[in-house]
Amino acid sequence: MRRDLQLNNVGRRYGIHGPWILRGVNLELAPHTLTRIEGPNGTGKSTLLRLLAGIDTPTEGKVTGRPRTAYVPERFPQALPFTAEAYLTHLGTVHGLSRAAAPRAASEWLDRFGAGAYARTPMTRLSKGSSQKVAVAQALLAEPELLVLDEAWTGLDEDARAELERAVAERTAAGGTVVFVDHDPRRLAGVSDATYTVTDGTLNLRTDKPTSPSGPQVSLDVQGPPGGQLPAEASQFLTSSTEPTPGTHRLTVPASHSDVLLRALLTAHPPWHVVSLNQRDDLPLDDESPR
Q: Where is there biased composition of kind Polar residues (predicted)?
């Protein structure tokens, strides 16, 4: 059984006498969770993500419970001697996919991010946006247990940004752990299970009320079996849940997470029945929250 990833009194500095970038960091990351890391530039956010991803090792303290991890760095190297498809196929086999499964996964993720047309383009000839799509795809194609995203949305077009949000929802719903940094405070606003702030080399849990989700919301009226409880994967990302009539639940979720919600409801045993679905940019949010 997979253990939680834990950082115990972790510190990091570069060089024996260098200044401490981080110190005294304690953090526990469980499956099925989404964690946001925020803070001013230069405070150590990227260093923390590199420690979580196993790219860096602590100068002091311990990291335990290391899961199978994928990482999207803030700056992705483009000068690689591969085509986009060959690079993803190679990494797929490195991450444990079979020789048959790796190229299929590479093709599927390039298509999902709208980069299928560049599959056979050398990495050195890709635009920054297309290169970023490859960077995100390489982290997702082997279904990691821990996904670490450092400004991963930067450079993506609108459709690809929405697709990455859907992929994040899929990973956490499937039992994965996702940790991310993004300069846009609206990114996955109100969806994270926890938000931490890095300030002066220390990590602190934000305890104030999270920002309400922004952007399009989807509202569904659903009916389940008598006395049935919503599947855990369905309730994980809800903005609100009410019962307007006995036996009917009105569920509100960010549009980027609606596919995961629908899949969880329709594949439950027995499945839930979707009565209606409505998407609006100005959908009012109820005060009652499943969290």
A: 203-217
